[in-house]
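Exercise 7. Given the components listed, write out the predicted structure of the assembled complex. Treat all entries as one system.
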Amino acid sequence: MADLDIQLTTAPLNPLALIAFVTVPQAGGIDLFIGTTRAETHPTLGQLQHLDYAAYHEMAVKELTKLVQHAREKWSTTKVALHHRLGPVPIGEASIIIAVSCPHRADAFAACRYLIDSLKETVPIWKKEVYARSARWQAEVK
Amino acid sequence: MLTSAPLEYPLIIRIRLFAHMAAHAGASAVTLEMPADCRLSDIPAALRQQFPDLPWPAGTMLAVNQEYAPAAHPLKPNDEVAIIPPVSGG
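Answer.
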């Protein structure tokens, strides 16, 4: 589909590529969300070194496509780009970028928020927290 | 005409494991042989026969052929079942 660009990639993410994809004359607002690896210190595991993401790739793309289609129906999105990084993501670097363009800004904000919130609920992607002394999957501690 | 005993045709079901479940099993894909009339709800017990210590976090969901599916979903030959522990993308 020409109005959606979903990528799961081990390469560093480039927000300019997503902005370029969603920039079209009929859109009056573009909302951009960037999720990054936050520096953390765990009381026993030490400093966070990086996050490491794994995906059930085929299903993740299917689920993301469903979310984007729902956003298009509900908020009349013009174009959506969603890139998720896999593998190690160093502190301060982006693990996810979502860009949404809509005719009006309120819809762009709402659709972008819906996409990141829903991704965290249903899309089969998992993060492993790699600390100085040990690593653990987030799914272990939930 | 002789009536023959019902035949059990085992289903070959491919199982995908992720995150710490894959780490515990030591594999991200395993194959199970299941009875012909099995349902998705039969998979967890069969899997734990093979991997008795497999962790099973609360909120783990199951998918068949890359779609979330309910427990009563009947399985067909060569279905791919994925065990989806709580997701944490983003």
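Discussion: The domain at 11-84 of chain B is CATH 3.10.20.30 (Ubiquitin-like (UB roll)). Strands of chain B lie at 11-16, 29-34, 61-64, 67-68, 80-84.
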